[in-house]
Amino acid sequence: MPERLDVHVDHDRCVGNGMCLEFATGVFAHNARRQAEVVDPEGDAAEDIIVAAENCPTAAIQLSDAATGEPYEV
Amino acid sequence: MPATFTLTDDLFAPEVIADPYTYFGALREIEPVHRNDRFGLWLVTGYEELVWILRHHELFSSAVIKRVAAPPYPPVDAADLPLFDEIREFRANQLVEQDRPEHLHQRGVVHGYFTPKAMERWRPFVRAAVAEILDGVHAGGTMEVLTELAAPLPVRIIAEMMGVPYEDRDRLRAMADGILYINRGEPHRLRPLVDAVRGIVDYASPLVKERIVEPGTDFISVLAEGESRGVFDRRQVLVNTGLLLFAGHETTMNLICNGLLAFIRNPGQWERLRADPGGMARLATEECLRYDPPVKSTQRIAAEDVEIAGRTIRGGEPLRWIMAAANRDPAVFSDPDTFDIGRQPNPHLSFGSGIHYCLGATLARIEGQEVFRGLAERFSRFELATDRIEYQPSLQFRSVKSLPVRWSA
User: Fold this and answer.
1) For residue B51, which residues of chain A lie inside 8 Å, CB to CB?
2) What does CATH list as the number for A5-68?
3) Is B353's CB within 8 Å of A15's CB?
4) Domain boundaries of chain A, sorted by first residue
5) In terms of Cα–Cα distance, which of B234, B243, B233 is closest to B207?
6) Which residues of chain B are within 8 Å of residue A74 when distances are taken between CB atoms?
């Protein structure tokens, strides 16, 4: 597991289910359209961010290793 | 709007049930948030308005059954009316009828079971089940798609998810068929519905007792674990078992029937799928979901006064959001009335949006993909074996009564 992750939310897929805000409270917040935005990619531990990404019902959260840029598949 | 243009206010008029797209599409163009006084309902048909409502769950409650005591419609036999309270209690306890904070706690128990990754592990089972059913019907040259394919497939999958013993499958199937009466119009429908609901509670009760003590990896064990953690009481575990059986059955049935019907009526799109079934199945399923969705509309109730699209919805007033109309909003979809299986992106609202986004969405997608792929790999051409397609008189579900087809191998 990478130590630090880059986090991207695909807004074509995000339906505002809000589960990521529960699993990684420090990383995600909802914008005015109630879609997830990354407010601080280091706001939670990498393992919590991975759980948040796994629990996205539309697989809208994409992760990559911040050090290498390699995609991290959940 | 032309002065002469009038629309019926009868949402159950035969022409509205037969073709909801013309009616609700006209409403969307005239007034995307419309008050229907006859049914005491707001009808939301515009895409943007609908998304806004679904993402503001604090303004629009899902606890509709608890808050609205409307009698059953179409009407039922007067002698059966006492049964309606039993159905209301059953439905009001289900996850889909909860608001936050309870909804978040309850969804938290079951959410992990349905993630895209977890559901993807079911694909081989779904594919095998599709193959087994299609192997069985292959010889005849005709098929009643609803009863031979679309209804048995999801029940088989749900039975496996529930960890139901093989010899009980027929019993589960009978209960699943009984619950479908929730969506029907017959005046006597409450009796078979109540029988099915009681049947599920009786059947699942000993299973829940077992799995509280000895949990497995099945869905009933997931609910039972929620009870052990104090999130669900026993009644909620049982009614949500019933919810899985119904929600996973009716909707998948409609996806398969409505999708196949769209292909039969658009042979060019069928040829497109047949040219590359494995490659096209994913986008094709999304277009089936958009074009003729399994669920036409769902309810909310305003928690307070809300201004939207120039109208004021008062606190306590119920509304229906018509995803069947929003899915054809020309502001979002080009040529919205065209069935185009290459459409991408395809941000349809057939699974809703926001905190109540369909828990079973990934499973439904996998089932649709495997069915349309399986059909396209085996059969060169389908045609209707009837000149009349009839639908159940439901505002909520887009359900054919029957879909007889003939095929060429």
Assistant:
1) 33
2) 3.30.70.20
3) yes
4) 5-68
5) B234
6) 117
Q: What distance in Å separates the CA atoms of residue B36 and residue B33, rounded to the nearest whole number?
A: 10
- The two three-digit tokens of residue B120, written as one number: 């993807």
Q: What integer pLDDT is reported at residue B68 of this predicted model? A: 87
Q: Is the peptide bond before B345 cis (omega within 30 degrees of 0)?
A: yes
B354/A34 CB distance under 8 A: yes
SS3 state at B306 = strand
Residue ranges per domain, chain B?
14-408
Q: For residue A17, list chain B residues with Cβ-Cβ distance below 8 A.
A: 354-355, 357
Q: Which of B51, B104, B117 sits opposite A54 (nearest CB)?
A: B117
- Mean pLDDT for chain A overall: 96
Structure pTM? 0.96
Size of chain A in residues: 74
Pairing mode, if any, of strands A71-72 and B404-408?
Answer: unpaired
Instruction: Report the top-level CATH class of B14-408.
Output: mainly alpha
Q: Is the pLDDT confidence value at B5 over 80?
A: no
Q: What amino acid occupies position A64? A: S
Minimum-distance CB partner of A57 among B54, B55, B361: B361
Confidence of residue B1 (pLDDT cuts 50, 70, 90): very low
The average pLDDT across A34-58 equals 97
User: The tokens of B244 are what?
Assistant: 């899985």
Which residues are within 8 A (CB) of B406 and not within 5 positions of it... i.e. 6 or more apart? Answer: B141, B142, B382, B383, B384, B385
Alpha carbon distance B322, B34 (integer Å): 11
